[in-house]
Design brief:
The chain has 649 residues and is of the alpha/beta class. The chain is built from 22 helices and 22 strands. Strand 18, helix 19 and strand 19 form a beta-alpha-beta unit.
Length: 649
């Protein structure tokens, strides 16, 4: 039996595990005594944050834990927080990588503000990530990675990081994680470097014990990921079990096991999906629904590259991917594929949009279908390549020479990327126009539980082909009287030979024209075509009939704004939310909605681009603004505090 007194338990643990000097005095009574009965708490929600060196596999551990949670029906929302350094020195403060996951019994909208459980794989992670943990959070620390040299790299002034950071030692689960991984794999035949790559799996196993997770899902994930390296897979599985057993045998943390039971389970097949993967799947679905080949011309750029990676796996589904030599050729090659009759896509981030703008304009004047995916990141220039902003809105609306309108959509969440990509492709093919789909690093790298859709429930896609009855009379810019879109004549159709290019064309004949009246006409026809695209009305959620405050946003801030609205309504305030998914053209009821409420706050992760656009489009509209450009998602508590102040004015 373990000693019953806290002091005795502490001494027993240190004698058995060999606590390092820097953590020897940590009060870790909450870790180790074997309770008579396991205390299992039922929780509504919890936030877990994994953190360590960029090579410690925190994203993998977090993804597996998310998948395990999604499989049992929990609602999840994740936020991978990558360092900007490509490979910072080991143990350095700038090289810390994080992965945060919010798990709920009911619907969760954000990855959470602060973590209930923080996993720190080294001293640098402890120092930099503590700010993302709640004051009473459980903190799991690998004390093998908190030795003197580690503390010096992390710029600690003393050999007691717990005391130096002012952490309540009762919250700390200090374990010799690295040592136990080596012990678990001592008979594996692996070298030490390979063993250390499995440290993340020990942390995963411990967290799975903490939340009563079934390890079989994690094992299946590992076996699939390392299918070509079965020995590596089994080593990782062994370490996961070791982490789970450590939690079980020591009852690590005072609160013991927590469980989040799903309240609402919708039947279906689910997967944990990132926004970039959902975007890729949405494009594949749209191509299948339209009966077309899918072509992606792209150049690798953070954080959009995963779309290229994912689509490259699906040649069997009629997908062609080309990694081009630069952004311009990526867009231009996609435009060539569009002329040839494919669903053409190009993917990039803000810097690539700058480079693609000329080729995007070529798509505007040629009136060819093209989907341009802009996964926004922090800027300007290289800026914060692994962080998230909404700072490309005005660029995609207006950042091209001449009058060059194109539809703009913004995905609301990682799972909504599927629907948004599908809809962007539908609009491009049916209205013969380039379309911009805005996501950003937050939704692109974040993940959520995704119910696999039934494509029969999605609207049909009808490419705007030239009708057979126009053979002999058709000209390249002949338009559909209902939509204003020109017809698509795919090469190879006898009787529809034509030439397109970047010079202005005569509306009637399709021949090159410099006639001023014709140019004015063509400019207006191209704008009218976009304006006539039918999009759903702007939906208002919350107290839509009598709200004293309307929160307005677009794209990926949806979850945070919704969570803020829910919090304010729980406090007794009358609050509503309108989140824009369709930005050009705006929903037909936009002006009516925005003028309906006495106070409107436009919240966005830029310096006011949506607010400026809405002022331009709606006479007399003068909203209040909440703007942040930090490269990080909104903090719901800060947003709620600001909105409460506005309500009290």
């Amino acid at each position: 039996m373990l000693p019953r007194s806290p002091t005795g338990r502490k001494a027993y643990l240190c004698s058995r595990t060999g606590c390092s000097k820097s953590l020897k005095d940590t009060n870790i009574t909450n870790q180790t005594y074997m309770a008579e009965h396991l205390d299992i708490q039922e929780l509504e929600q919890v936030v877990v944050r994994f953190s360590g060196d960029s090579g410690d596999g925190m994203q993998l551990a977090g993804n597996i834990f998310s998948t395990v949670s999604a499989t049992v029906g929990n609602s999840i929302s994740t936020f991978p927080d990558y360092p900007a350094d490509i490979r910072a020195p080991q143990g350095s403060l700038t090289g810390v990588s994080g992965f945060q996951v919010h798990i709920g019994a009911g619907k969760v909208y954000t990855p959470g503000d602060l973590a209930d459980v923080l996993v720190c794989m080294n001293a640098a992670a402890l120092k930099t990530q503590l700010r993302y943990a709640k004051p009473d959070a459980t903190i799991i620390v690998d004390i093998d990675a908190c030795q003197q040299k580690d503390l010096e790299r992390a710029a600690f002034a003393t050999d007691d990081p717990i005391a130096e950071l002012g952490i309540d030692s009762d919250r700390v689960v200090a374990c010799h994680l690295t040592t136990m991984v080596k012990d678990a794999l001592s008979d594996s035949g692996m070298d030490q470097k390979s063993m250390l790559k499995c440290r993340n799996m020990f942390a995963l196993g411990l967290v799975c014990w903490l939340f009563d997770r079934d390890l079989e899902v994690a094992y299946a994930f590992i076996r699939e990921k390392f299918a070509r390296k079965p020995a590596v897979a089994e080593a990782n599985i062994k370490v996961i079990q070791a982490g789970y057993d450590f939690g079980h045998n020591t009852h690590s943390t005072a609160n013991n096991v927590r469980r989040i039971e799903s309240r609402e389970k919708v039947p279906g097949r689910y997967m944990d999906i990132t926004g970039n993967k959902a975007t890729a799947y949405g494009l594949i679905a749209a191509a299948e629904r339209a009966g077309l080949k899918l072509y992606l011309g792209s150049y690798p750029i953070t954080p959009a590259t995963d779309i290229l990676h994912e689509l490259a796996k699906h040649k069997s589904l009629g997908v062609t991917t080309v990694q081009c030599e630069d952004e311009i050729s990526g867009c231009a090659s996609a435009l060539g594929a569009s002329f040839a009759g494919a669903l053409a896509v190009t993917s990039t981030s803000g810097p690539g949009i700058c480079l693609k703008s000329e080729a995007m304009n070529l798509a505007v004047i040629m009136e060819l279908p093209l989907v341009v995916i802009d996964v926004q990141r922090g800027g300007p220039a290289t800026g914060l390549p692994t962080k998230s902003e909404q700072t490309d809105l005005l660029q995609v609306l207006f950042g091209r020479n001449g009058e060059s309108p194109m539809p703009v959509l913004a995905a609301l969440s990682p799972t909504d990327c599927f629907d948004a990509a599908y809809d962007a492709a539908r609009i491009a093919l049916e209205h013969m126009t380039p379309v911009v789909l805005l996501t950003d690093a937050f939704v692109a790298n974040g993940s959520a539980a995704f119910r696999l859709p039934d494509l029969n429930e999605y609207p049909e896609i009808h490419p705007h082909y030239v009708p057979e009855e126009l053979r002999g009379t058709w000209t390249p810019y002949q338009r559909d009287p209902e939509t204003g879109a020109r017809y698509w004549a795919v090469p190879g159709r006898e009787g529809f030979t034509h030439i397109l290019g970047g010079l202005e064309k005569d509306n009637a004949t399709g021949a090159i024209s410099t006639n001023p009246e014709n140019h004015d006409l063509m400019t207006r026809l191209r704008a009218e075509k976009v304006a006539r695209i039918s999009v759903p009305d702007l939906e208002v959620q919350g107290d839509k009939d009598d709200a004293e405050l309307l929160i307005v946003g677009f794209g990926s801030t949806y979850g945070h704004l919704h969570a803020a609205m829910d919090e304010l309504r729980a406090q007794g305030h009358k609050v509503a939310l309108a989140q824009f998914r369709y930005i050009n053209p705006l929903p037909a009821n936009t002006a009516e909605v925005l003028r309906r409420y006495p106070r409107v706050v436009v919240a966005e992760q830029n310096c006011g681009q949506l607010a400026a656009y809405l002022r331009m489009r709606i006479d007399g509209f003068a909203p209040e603004q909440y703007n942040e450009v930090k490269g990080q998602p909104f903090v719901v508590s800060e947003l709620t505090s600001y909105l409460t102040q506005q309500l009290g004015r």
